[in-house]
Amino acid sequence: MLPRVAGSEGSSGRWSVLAVDDEPQNQRAVRRALADECRVVTASGGEEALAALSREPFALCVVDHRMPGMSGTELLAHVRQTHSEMIRVVLTGYADIDTLLDAINSGHVYHVLCKPWDARELRLVVRRGLERFAAERERGRLRRELEIACAGARREAEQKSRLLALAAHELGTPLHILVNAIALIESTGLPPAAAGWVESAQRATSWLARGVTQLNTASRIRERRLLLRRRPTDLGALVDGLLDELSPASRERRLHLVFPRRAPTECAVVDPDWIRLALWNLLTNAIRFTPDGGAVAVEMEAPGDEIIFVVRDTGVGIAAEVVDEIFEPFSAAAGDVLLHGSGLFAFGARGLGLGLATVKGIAEAHGGSVEVSSVAGAGSRFRLRLPLDGAPATGTAAADRD
């Protein structure tokens, strides 16, 4: 049974087929042959056929090639322009090649049957034609649904970008005022009882400032406004500096930070500030999801014309169902929102869910990439790839600025 698509069926729920022939006996023959296949409407010529087409839709038309007034080829050429989805079949007693080519080229004919045609052959051609019509209709429906879904996804992405930018802006201004106000209060000579409150307020504003900075960076990345100041950078020294900064936290949690001895040529043309942020996010992510007493290792490789950072940990790993979206902003991989906290390095602490998305944006702005392999309960390994020569990413808005 063929699937039904509203708009080309008769009252019986069957497909409607238009049969056009100037001979009444031929019309009756077509109707008899197709009685079990579809609903048949007949017309004796081109003008009558066009009138029928104006009244109702048809899935397929069977047209005699040689008719007085408007030929079958002319009619089908018109049908192609006004009803392009309709399947078109030609009946002809003139089997010369020019006639067939004319019919096919002018009307994009699905099939040509030569007279005298066989009823079984006609039924088979019509059946296959209706199947094709149903398939094309279904493809069209699915394509429209996909276009609607894609448009919705684009709108959501644009709304998310606007929300990030708006949140960063709206929070940034009062935060700046609040920081200055706390500094002024502290400078006025507070009683001992108030000192603890001021210190707590300073920690809270620092935490809030980190969140606003993350929102602002994420907004710039989504809008491809990440501007780079590239220069030759000793990446090994950059990693050394990061590990020195992270050492107190790692000692407190008995974590082993490992960075094997490096070669003296680990340099690349990058923006050191952005690369530092990318590596900071990878390392702090590894620290926060590695239990006390575990290990976090950084390795550097320089195969060919790129440099690769590998950050490995012995942490909790990433669940298989969310690993593919780990680099998306606010993805489920960031964990339960109720478990988010302000701690930078505490085991299991979670942030806004923007850190790895930021890593991806920084890597792509440099013409590189980032990837992850992970098994839940068995740790994770991130690979950050960067070109050595600072080649920009094709099709991005990343730019150098003096």
How would you describe what is shown here?
It is a single chain. This protein has 402 residues and is an alpha/beta fold. The protein has 3 domains: 16-117, Response regulator (Rossmann fold, 3-Layer(aba) Sandwich), CATH 3.40.50; 153-222; 227-400, Histidine kinase-like ATPase, C-terminal domain (Heat Shock Protein 90, 2-Layer Sandwich). 47% of the residues lie in helices and 17% in strands. The protein has 9 helices and 14 strands. The chain has helices at 24-33, 46-55, 72-82, 97-107, 119-187, 192-222, 235-252, 272-288, 355-365; strands at 16-20, 39-43, 60-64, 87-92, 111-114, 227-228, 231-234, 256-258, 267-270, 295-301, 306-313, 369-374, 380-387, 399-400. The strands form 4 sheets. Strands 2-1-3-4-5 form a 5-stranded parallel β-sheet, sandwiched between helices. Strands 8-10-11-13-12 form a 5-stranded mixed β-sheet, covered by helices on one side. The two termini are 69 Å apart.
Helix content: 40-55%
What is the residue-mean pLDDT, rounded to a whole number?
82
Could you state the order of secondary-structure elements as H and E?
Answer: EHEHEHEHEHHEEHEEHEEHEEE
Outline: elongated
- Count the DSSP helices: 9
Structural class: alpha/beta
Kindly report the CATH topology of the largest domain: Heat Shock Protein 90
List low-pLDDT spans.
1-6, 393-402
Describe the strand arrangement of the main beta sheet, using strand numbers: 2-1-3-4-5
**Ends: how far apart?**
69 Å
What proportion strand? Answer: 15-25%
- Name given to the CATH homologous superfamily of the largest domain: Histidine kinase-like ATPase, C-terminal domain
How many strand units? 14
Give me the Rg, rounded.
35 Å
Task: Supply the CATH architecture of the largest domain.
Answer: 2-Layer Sandwich
Q: Any idea of the CATH class of the largest domain? A: Alpha Beta
Largest sheet, in brief, is:
5 strands, parallel
Domain module count: 3
